[in-house]
Amino acid sequence: MTELPSRRLLLVHAHPDDESINNGATMARYAAEGAHVTLVTCTLGERGEVIPRELRHLSGAALGGHRLGELKDAMRALGVTDFRLLGGAGRYCDSGMMGLPDNDDAGCFWQADVDQAAGLLAEVILEIRPQVLVTYDDDGGYGHPDHIQAHRVAMRAVELAAAAGWDIPKVYWNRVPRSVAEEAFARLDTDLAGLPFDKAGALDDVPGVVDDAQVTTAVDGTAHAAAKAAAMRAHATQITVAEPYFALSNELAQPLFTTEYYELVRGERPAGRESDLFAGTGEAS
Ligand SMILES: [Zn+2]
């Protein structure tokens, strides 16, 4: 195997599109700076609602295959070449929203054995040896079963990999500071009339909103705003983009953040707010 760059970042997400919405600017920035960026996506999002009318016939495996194509286009936009499906494409399928009978499907990610899935992810960790891992908080950011499961699997994989020889120095959860979200929604109220969306979403629609003090890290990806928007646009079955806003299939407008925020949950908590995920690892930019 050729030697990887000295800085290595691993992101763990539930569905194709989550990476671009949550971390698109971060991924584009670190890829542009020459860091090795690895994305592991746990399912192909086979149960996602499809926005474009002409694609609404797609469902199940056909939708999964289509979304894999969208993911490839998104990764091209972000400059990320290393992206994988946990256990290979189709190993785990989308669980659908909480409370639906879809969650009982034996092949869905919600039903996955956490240790087994974490073992698959630990193999990736031991191969890449990242200094930084990014995933969701224990509520998955907003309670979707696959997001909660991605959190559990990622955190368990960190333990398994540590026991097997690679202790990831820094683990982060995706966050949005409440003040940043409030300001952005106030702006959205003013801008809504000029947007192709009828209604604004609410702050509760944004995953991972917490009090400002809980946020340890802000990654300024403003220079990569266009790449993030392009990556989100690539997920056309799931997202409509009208910068600096976007909407999911519920058609509720929400802000598209190009500074992305994190909470450090493994590693020494910084005194002030960091601006680099690799700060303190000896590999800071
Ligand atoms: Zn998702």
UniProtKB/TrEMBL annotation:
One Pfam family here: PIG-L
Family: Belongs to the MshB deacetylase family.
PANTHER family the UniProt entry points to: 1D-MYO-INOSITOL 2-ACETAMIDO-2-DEOXY-ALPHA-D-GLUCOPYRANOSIDE DEACETYLASE, N-ACETYLGLUCOSAMINYL-PHOSPHATIDYLINOSITOL DE-N-ACETYLASE-RELATED
Gene3D superfamilies attached to this UniProt entry: LmbE-like
Record keyword Transit peptide present: no
EC number of the protein: 3.5.1.103
Enzyme class: hydrolase
Reactions this protein catalyses: 1D-myo-inositol 2-acetamido-2-deoxy-alpha-D-glucopyranoside + H2O = 1D-myo-inositol 2-amino-2-deoxy-alpha-D-glucopyranoside + acetate
Domain of life: Bacteria
Keyword annotations: Hydrolase, Metal-binding, Zinc
Cofactor dependence: Zn(2+)
Binding site for Zn(2+): H15, D18, H147
Keyword Ubl conjugation: no
Name by which UniProt lists this protein: 1D-myo-inositol 2-acetamido-2-deoxy-alpha-D-glucopyranoside deacetylase
GO molecular function terms noted in the UniProt entry: N-acetylglucosaminylinositol deacetylase activity; zinc ion binding
Cofactor details (free text): Binds 1 zinc ion per subunit.
GO biological process entries: mycothiol biosynthetic process
Function: Catalyzes the deacetylation of 1D-myo-inositol 2-acetamido-2-deoxy-alpha-D-glucopyranoside (GlcNAc-Ins) in the mycothiol biosynthesis pathway.
InterPro entries per record: GlcNAc_PI_deacetylase-related, LmbE-like_dom_sf, Mycothiol_biosynthesis_MshB
